[in-house]
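explain this:

___
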Amino acid sequence: MAPFGVRVSLVRPGPVVSSFVDAAVDSVDVTEGPYARFNQDLVDRYRQAYDGSASNLEISPGKVADVIATAATAARPRSRYAVGTMAKSLITTRRLLPDVAWDAVARQTWPTPKRPS
């Protein structure tokens, strides 16, 4: 976008306190099909990740809005803005870990589909 005089910044928030997860997971079919069990596991994991507990380090929508406003009004905006402790730590961890280690973290954190019987 630079040739058009447009500066672009990527705002990367961590978990945000909102009803987004409820809306997203309510549409997932967990009742039938070969992936019903996996879909249910995924819904459960998302609900756990966004349960409102302090341990999930959720941030407010206002905090994200503040960072967007900062990026939009900065004379020299940064290319990327991580918002919240979770986002900052995940981005740093991803940079430091080799792919095989990052993949192992992802498999431990999120459900993996199993072959249907």
